[in-house]
Amino acid sequence: MFVPGLFGSMGDEIIPGTGDWHFGLAGIVYKPFVKLLERELGLKEGENFFVSYYDWRKPIEHSARRYLYDTIEHAKKITGKKKVVIISHSMGGLVSRSYVESNYYKFDVSQLIMMCTPNAGSPPNFSYWTGGSLPGESGDKFNLVRLYMDAYLWLLPRVTNMSRVDAIHEFFKGLKDITPGAAYGNYLFMKNNDGEFGVVPYQTMNTKNNFLDGLNNKREVMKKRHIPITLIGGIGEETIRYLEVEPSDSPDIWIDGEVTNSLKTELGDGNATLSSVFSLEGDKHIFQGSHNEVLYKSLPLLAKKLGRSCGEEKPYPSFNDYSLIILKGKGHIKLKEKTEHISHLLRPDTSTSIEHHMSVVRIKQMSCLVVSQEFLRTYTVNFVPHELRDVEYLLIKKGKRTESRIHVSSKDPIPVNALLTL
Question: How far apart are CA 22 and CA 349, in angstroms?
């Protein structure tokens, strides 16, 4: 069973109108990974392989009880087996831990594999939770998860008509569950009036991760329940280790200090530090690569853990050059192959992933695209509006944000390629 990470599940239960469960914009990462597992390890979705989607906006405990538990029951019923092997990525590892450490656990997990799971939490999530943004990030280093986060936090206040932080606290409670907990250690450094920094002790903070503290306080239960744990971490990517903060006068945001800068380490995958991933006991493995690349580099290890053979090493997709654009307005996406001049219409009521090149999701009257520069060299991407009007758009490329409007008509489609190559 595969449990994806944050933003790795989408469907009507999360946002009405997005269809049955799928990977959403994260399809460029997860969809080819699942195909790889099926092709190389002899798995087949729906028969001996299952994906546990979940509502990542909700508290992690809710996701474990409401979604993972039900998916495991379904898998046992289909296969006739009494236990499942869980392969989890990022936040999905915490959903999995929440189940196997719970009082409703049915002793039906034979092993738990966690890839890039922040078992002690991750500092950037504190910044998003308390202030709605991650200041001080120049975007020089590409980060796909941060791209998704910036896009979602741009959308959230627009669909809720609330301030960003209020909307996060009301509709994105799962985010708090991946802020750093006590096991992470002190991670805030407060600048005083003299410009000197002092440590902000975790125990004195208003923002504590009670969920993760509770999970880590009883982590020995996994050993008592004889669940073999495999921990897989990535290194070589700039990863936020500490945050610099200044006092804030606001009673509503930045309640533990306004984030102004970050201190990084390369002992991480760009999102989770190695020390956070390895804060549990288990069989530990390290791969050079980003949060998403580790998925693919782990394939031979996954084959070994599952007792299956694995073919020759395959080239790993690089997740280093993607742009995201959100277009607000009625319309559809049209692709054209530059060499063959063949047009492909992506219907407004569908969500599409083209391997690791492009993902498209429709959310109400908004079209959200994540696309690689490589894809743009082969295809022309156009947004064809259904009416004469101004279309608002957000473009995020290499950490730089552009927000603007374009006046369009159905006879004058928006050339997405031109926007994405600015």
Answer: 14
Q: Where are the domains of the chain?
A: 2-121+210-240+263-306, 123-204, 322-420
Residue appearing with tokens 């690089």: 318
> What would the 3-class secondary structure string for the chain be?
CEECCCCCCECCCCCCCCCCCECHHHHHHHHHHHHHHHHHHCCCECCCECECCCCCCCCHHHHHHHHHHHHHHHHHHHHCCCCEEEEEECHHHHHHHHHHCCCCCCCCEEEEEEECCCCCCCHHHHHHHHHCCCCCCCCCCCCHHHHHHHHHHHHHHHHHCCCHHHHHHHHCHHHHHHCCCHHHCCCEEEECCCCCEEEECHHHCCCCCHHHHHHHHCCHHHHHCCCCEEEEEEECECEEEEEEEECCCCCCCCCCCEEEEEEEECCEECCCEHHHHCCCCCEEEEEECCCCHHHHHCHHHHHHHHCCCCCCCCCCCCCCCEEEEEEECCEEEEEEECCCCCEEEECCCCCEEECCCEEEEEECCEEEEEEEHHHHCCEEEEEEECCCEEEEEEEEECCEEEEEEEEEECCECEEHHHHHCC
Q: Give the pLDDT of residue 87.
A: 98
42/52 Cα distance (integer angstroms): 19
Planar angle of CA 97, 102, 106, nearest 5 degrees: 100
Phi and psi at residue 284, to the nearest 5°: -105, 135
Residue-level pLDDT at 336: 82
What pLDDT digit, counting tens, does each position of 238-275 carry?
A: 999 999 999 998 888 999 999 999 999 999 999 999 99
Query: Does the structural domain 2-121+210-240+263-306 have CATH classification 3.40.50.1820?
Result: yes
pTM: 0.93
- Interior CA angle at 59 toward 58 and 65, to 5°? 95
Write the CB contacts of 303 (distance below 8 Å, at least 6 apart in sequence).
Answer: 40, 41, 309, 310
User: Distance between CA atoms of 156 and 152, rounded to whole angstroms?
Assistant: 6
